[in-house]
Design a protein that fits this description.
The complex is a heterodimer of chains A (about 450) and B (about 850). Chain A is α/β, with parallel strands linked by helices and about 450 residues long. The two termini of chain A are about 40 Å apart. The radius of gyration of chain A is 22 Å and the shape is globular. In chain A, the strands form three sheets. Chain A has a seven-stranded mixed beta sheet, sandwiched between helices. Chain B has about 850 residues and is of the alpha+beta class. Chain B has 31 helices and 23 strands. In chain B, the strands form seven sheets. In chain B, strands 3, 5, 6, 8, 11, 13 and 14 form a seven-stranded antiparallel beta sheet that branches. The chains are: A alpha/beta (about 450), B alpha+beta (about 850). At the A-B interface, α5, β5, α6, α7 and α8 of A face α10, α13, α14 and α15 of B.
């Protein structure tokens, strides 16, 4: 793996034992078919008994795409790859292009503008977020969190939320929508997002424990000590909750839920420990690299490692917050992305958007390389992973939310028939895809958001 | 807040010696604008208890609480005006845009409605009223209401909102708990322990709403954050309370504790080596250095020499001693050894065994070596560090008279009170002591056990959440003094109240005239008020957006992160100056000075030599730049990466300076792919946008504001041309006010919009201070604050003082009475909002 110019810490003594001093941070294990249960519950696809559990990764790109350079002209198996998909040519055999899916929750539905915030907020929730600048925020639970809640206790981290930037820090994010909507793909419930990790050093620490040079806490038995701390704080929270009115109790409930999650994590660590953890052989990053591409590659490396070491099986990733207006100077594009996406049919702007889309897709291909290159239980990790890549906006100028650019990669080992360009009937909800993914991953779900059924027929053949 | 008394403001005004206000203390509607009179004269909290309000001799407002019968009469009167004239106007002039399911602003005026419906959706109508009052609605190019009609509509709305809705809809419940932001966490930890922990790097960002990241509703807790809190607390505790045991080793073994081979036998606690050989033990030391090893030994002497004993470390004999002592008086044999960190083996050997069984003297037959005790301590000469505030925190240690738990209890009582920012109950202290005891039982030292208690304290909700006492439902009450102190301190310093402020609160001084103002002055003058610049000012003026900008190295001089940082500092120093000198609010836009270093001076084309880093004040009188709108940071963040954006600049002025965000674009923004391409200069392209009536109503105002700044390029530098074309920076603001260029814009904003700028500032201050969006009930306080400060030109320091003295800041609401209570004079509950 590549070391980084701005000083990665290859000088740290990587004593494995020392790493275990982070919070609940035993390295989770590589997969052993016999020791982990999770059978795939789909009656059609899936290898059935005691096989490698499924993983799910969602990646979001902002501001839509230049659809003519994305959408193949023919459907079926023999389609030509337009320029954006060319970047993924090496993974063509693992790729399904899904056209025609619709995200109704992102439409205005009488709320006026704010499409970008809505697109992100609705993408994984299929809900219509309540328009608000900061009072009475309401969205829906996201599909990745549904999976995390049902299946997440089999790994140390039920889910992992990653991004290239933290939540927006200033200003008015999108026409009357608080920045909370435009910054978060994953929502634990209607009012609580799951914040992203954007700092690669912090992400590394969370996955693999802190380096030995940090002061260890004195005294015996850190695990027992942590447990007594958590007992204490829960007691404090219960006492405080008794004194509060209903509206405020909810805040303490959230706190207690989070503490319980932490306790469960620690129990999982105990249960999983005893087997020799794998050394990731990866230097701890010192921080976020300045270069966007370098930063993203680093995050993708860590995400791939998280999957390889089975630290988690559910991940989401945002290329940027909604409506991102960053310029891509490495591509010699000086204008802001969002501004370009309102192209007004200007050819030059459209060409630039396409370039940005290709750039994003190219980086995505490297992530897929990692998953394809790692073996697990006799298969490629990619075969057991469902990767969804796309946006909640189709054309950035028209701001339409039907016929979204959505790619599904991987999952062959789960029964997915890949290599197709599928076109769904008009207004087929994106939630139908979410339902399929969740079911293939082993979750039990009658419906989700505005789903009308799942896509198993088309995806599994 | 619903209560009209504004006692605090009255006292503040007195203490600031504003004679005009004192003499104008009586409501005099002919002097004040009608709207102020309306809002002031009403809004009594019908039937609600007001706790802790002092009588004031100055505030001589109407003190009538409308009875339910009065209210009913009022509603009837308003309904009849609605039927007679208002409804007609609305239907005739407004329903073109405001009708149907896609109505602009979700306001469908074709649906039948009465006053009661308006009351139900009071917040929506409040914004409409603000627009009508500002002359923005109906949009000027649809200007179809006469001046008179607009006034009557505005008055009617005002009455419905402030004389009915305000009474009938209780203020929302103030949140009683609010999580610390990551910046507040960092500062609180620094105050408590002296440790600096970089939360900005480790914790996820706090979500932003209404422009600020400290809103109670958006500050949530997630498992990710909980992990971070625990990890942070452990690191902070380890640095705040250093356990000497992790630096020193003191170990000792009795002879019988040592491990020997054959031919050893015990003698009470000693161990005897009968035939050579070695006794060993293992020890782990955490730190490298010089250690003192000591053996206490004696011998059964025989033969013609004394016992010889070797001291062995890790298999190597370092020294041999002669042991002449006998059992009654064993001798001590010290040795200084150098040890590395880690595990070592220590050994004692018997080097000269002697056995002469044939000796006639029994006592001369056998020589044996006996070991009584082995000791190790060190490292010597090493300075054991202590945490930055360790001596103050751990002011009690166990000794002969004090048991550890008793000492710990004293320490924990004080620590918890300081950390939790309130008095702690005995039950809480006992729980902490129990935690301490458990740790000690499991082998932790005094300091280590207290470390664990500190981890618990820093992770518990009493630390992580700010708490305020909530009045019972249906009531409004004054914040208790200790909580008021915390509210003021977090507002101005983003950290807990210091001892002086707490003492003032405890002595009841914060409710005495002038005392609170005095404390506020102290806080503003203190260096810690830089937090107000970092948190309030940065978010108010959107300066944090500068974090997102890419450097532009192709410019000359290049736009590097350091330059952007300097621009940020310039604006903050500018505002700091205005507050420090209590300058009037118009100087925000009209100031003929700013603060620059060498690079910024070049940026602005100023002559002179400046420090490379430090910013100093410089005059701008010879330039067109004025105030905030001439500052590069602002101009930069309101541009696109490669060109200016008049719309963004206009929007910034409306949002940040005037707190009147432009109405959202019409829902059906037409598919632009069906329109011909836009061409020409930027201005010409934008004119084409404005030719569409859907877009024009907003863009008229925004664009005129933004175009006036067109001579500042996208990096805030002055230019005469835009890509070879001449720049046209003229425009027309609503009301036919022409504006040409940046300097004129500054003058106009200052002359015509002074009150709106002051209002915007006050509303933002209150949002930040309260951690919530403002509602109908807060308008009362806002208007009062403006009235108090108006005669003197809305000076910034006065405004801050007035905000803190206001009801909105000092009172808290318990929310609506639960349903089923008898008093609510509300309209029929079947009515819906519109």
């Amino acid at each position: 793996m590549s070391p980084f110019a701005n000083g990665s810490d290859s000088n740290f003594p990587h004593s494995r034992r020392r790493w275990l001093q982070g919070v609940g941070a035993a390295l989770a294990l590589p997969l052993f078919e016999s020791s982990l249960a999770a059978a795939v519950s789909s009656s059609r696809g899936g290898a059935g008994i005691a096989s490698t559990p499924a993983r799910v990764v969602y990646l979001y790109v902002p501001n839509g795409m230049h659809m003519p350079d994305y959408r193949p002209r023919t459907i079926g198996n023999d389609f030509e790859l337009p320029p954006i998909l060319q970047q993924l040519a090496a993974h063509r055999g693992d790729m399904n292009v899904l056209s025609g899916l619709t995200l109704n929750g992102a439409r205005a539905l009488g709320d006026g503008p704010g499409d970008h915030a809505r697109s992100v907020a609705a993408f994984l929730t299929s809900a219509h977020p309540k328009k608000s600048d900061g009072t009475d925020i309401r969205n829906g639970v996201s599909i990745d969190q549904v999976m995390a809640q049902q299946l997440g206790d089999r790994t140390r981290l039920p889910s992992l939320e990653v991004g290239m930037e933290q939540s927006a820090a200033a200003g008015n994010c999108d026409s009357g929508y608080s920045c909370i909507y435009s910054s978060n793909l994953s929502w634990r419930d209607e009012t609580t997002p799951a914040p992203k990790e954007a700092n690669p050093a912090a992400l590394f620490d969370r996955l693999f424990g802190r380096p030995a040079s940090l002061e260890p806490l004195a005294g015996p038995d850190p695990e027992r000590r942590r447990r007594s701390v958590l007992d204490f704080v829960q007691e404090d929270a219960r006492r405080l909750r008794r004194e509060l009115g209903r509206g405020d109790q909810q805040r303490l409930e959230q706190y207690l839920t989070s503490v319980r999650e932490l306790e469960k994590q620690m129990i999982r660590v105990d249960r999983l420990e005893g087997l020799d953890p794998e050394d990731p052989e990866y230097p701890r990053p010192a921080g976020a690299p300045r270069e966007y591409a370098e930063h993203m590659e680093l995050m993708f490396d860590l995400m791939a490692l998280a999957l390889q070491t089975d630290a988690t099986r559910v991940m989401t990733f945002m290329y940027a917050n909604a409506g991102s207006n960053r310029s891509y100077r490495n591509l010699e594009i000086n204008q802001g992305h969002h501004e370009l996406s309102h192209h007004g049919n200007d050819r030059d702007k459209q060409a630039k958007i396409s370039q940005i889309n290709q750039f994003h897709a190219g980086l995505f291909a490297r992530f897929l390389d990692r998953l394809a290159g790692h073996e697990v239980g006799g298969e490629r990790l990619l075969d057991r992973t469902l990767v969804v890549y796309g946006s909640g906006i189709s054309d950035g100028n028209a701001h339409n939310h039907d016929d979204l650019p959505i790619l599904l990669l991987g999952g062959k080992g789960l029964g997915i028939k890949s290599g197709q360009h599928l076109k769904f009937r008009k207004e087929t909800p994106l939630a139908n895809l979410h339902l399929s993914v969740a079911r293939l991953a082993g979750a039990t779900l009658d419906q989700f958001g505005d789903s009308t059924g799942d896509l198993h027929d088309e995806l599994l053949g | 807040m619903g209560c009209h008394s504004e006692i605090g403001l009255s006292q503040f005004a007195l203490s600031m010696c504003l004679p005009e206000w004192v003499s104008a203390g009586r409501v005099d509607l002919s002097r004040w604008p009608v709207l102020a009179g309306r809002v002031l004269g009403c809004c009594l909290v019908a039937g609600w208890a007001i706790v802790g309000v002092l009588a004031s001799s100055v505030a001589a407002q109407e003190s009538v609480s409308p009875s339910p019968a009065d209210l009913k009469a009022k509603v009837t009167a308003l309904d009849s005006s609605l039927d007679q004239s208002i409804r007609g106007w609305l239907e005739e002039h407004c329903t073109a845009c405001h009708s149907g399911s896609e109505a602009d602003g979700q306001l469908d005026l074709t649906k039948p409605f009465r006053v009661s419906n308006v009351v139900k959706s009071a917040e929506k109508w409040r914004r409409l009223w603000q627009r009508v009052e500002a002359g923005e609605m109906p949009p000027p190019d649809h200007a179809v209401l006469t001046q008179q009609e607009q006034k009557v509509l505005g008055d009617w709305l005002g009455e419905v909102l402030y004389e009915v809705a305000c009474e009938v809809t209780p203020p929302r419940r103030s949140p009683a708990v609010r999580r610390l932001t990551r910046d507040e966490y960092r500062r609180s930890v620094e105050d408590l322990t002296g440790v600096t922990y970089a939360t900005a790097e480790q914790f996820p960002a706090d979500e932003v709403g209404h422009g600020f990241d400290n809103l109670a509703e958006l500050l949530s807790v997630s498992p990710l954050l909980m992990e971070k809190y625990l990890a942070a607390a452990e690191e902070i505790a380890a640095r705040a309370i250093v356990d000497p045991a992790t630096y020193r080793t003191e170990a000792s073994w009795n002879g019988i504790d040592l491990t020997g081979g054959e031919n050893v036998f015990p003698a009470e606690q000693d161990q005897v080596l009968a035939a050579g050989g070695e006794l060993t033990t293992k020890v782990t030391v955490p730190r490298p250095g010089k250690y003192e090893l000591e053996v206490i030994a004696w011998g059964q002497q025989a033969g013609d020499e004394a016992c010889r004993m070797g001291l062995i470390v890790n298999g190597k004999q370092l020294e041999e001693f002669e042991v002449t002592a006998v059992r009654r008086r064993p001798s001590k044999h010290p040795l200084t050894v150098e040890l590395s960190a880690g595990e070592h083996q220590l050994g004692v050997s018997f080097n000269n065994d002697f056995y002469d069984p044939d000796n006639p003297d029994k006592n001369q037959r056998d020589r044996n070596l006996a070991i009584r005790r082995l000791r190790l301590s060190g490292p010597t000469g090493v300075e054991i560090p202590v945490g930055p505030r360790q001596a103050e925190l751990i002011f009690a240690r166990p000794d002969e008279r004090t048991r550890p738990a008793a000492a710990a209890r004293q320490v924990l009582e004080r620590l918890a009170a300081e950390a939790f920012r309130r008095e702690v109950e005995q039950a809480e202290v006992l729980q902490l002591v129990k935690l301490f005891d458990d740790q000690q039982r499991w082998g932790a030292s005094y300091e280590a056990a207290l470390q664990t208690c500190l981890v618990a304290i820093l992770t518990s909700p009493s630390f992580l959440f700010k708490q305020e006492t909530s009045p019972p439902p249906g009531e409004i009450a004054q914040l208790p003094p200790a909580e008021l102190a915390q509210a003021v301190s977090f507002f101005l310093w983003s950290r807990p109240a210091d001892n002086e402020l707490l003492a003032a609160a405890a002595e009841g001084n914060l409710s005495k005239p002038g005392q609170l103002a005095h404390q506020v002055e102290r806080l503003l003058n203190d260096q810690r008020s830089s937090a107000w610049l970092d948190n309030f000012v940065e978010q108010w003026l959107y300066l944090r957006m500068l974090d997102r900008l890419e450097p532009r190295l192709e410019l000359s001089p290049p736009l590097t992160p350091e330059v952007m940082q300097a621009m940020r500092s310039e604006t903050k120093q500018f505002v700091a100056h205005l507050v420090k000198e209590n300058r009037p609010i118009r100087e925000l836009v009209l100031a003929e000075y700013t603060f620059v270093n060498q690079t910024l001076a070049e940026w602005y084309g100023l002559k002179g030599v400046f420090d490379a880093k430090e910013l100093t004040q410089v005059s701008l009188s010879d330039t067109p730049r004025r105030g905030l709108l001439g500052q590069a940071g602002i101009l930069l963040l309101t541009s696109n990466p490669d060109r200016t954006s008049p719309v963004k600049r206009g929007k910034w002025i409306l949002e940040t300076l005037l707190n009147q965000p432009p109405p959202p674009p019409a829902p059906e923004v037409p598919q632009l792919d069906s329109q011909p391409q836009l061409s020409g200069t930027l201005r010409q392209k934008m004119e084409q946008h404005r030719s569409d009536p859907n877009c024009a109503s907003c863009h008229l105002k925004m664009d005129a504001l933004g175009f006036a700044l067109e001579r500042y390029d996208s990096a805030g530098r002055w230019r005469e041309q835009d890509e070879g074309q001449a720049i046209d920076d003229r425009g027309e603001l609503p009301g036919g006010i022409g504006v040409a260029g940046a300097t004129e814009l500054a003058q106009i904003l200052s002359d015509q919009y002074e009150r709106q700028i002051a209002r915007g500032f006050v509303e933002k201050l209150l949002t930040f201070a309260l951690g919530r969006g403002l509602t109908l009930h807060d308008d009362q306080s806002v208007v009062k604050i403006l009235e108090v400060c108006r005669p003197d030109g809305y000076r910034l320091r006065d405004l801050i003082q007035a905000v803190i003295a206001s009801d909105a800041f000092q009172l808290r609401s318990g929310g609506p009475r639960p349903p089923g209570s008898s008093e609510s004079p509300s309209p029929s509950s079947q009515e819906n909002g519109i």
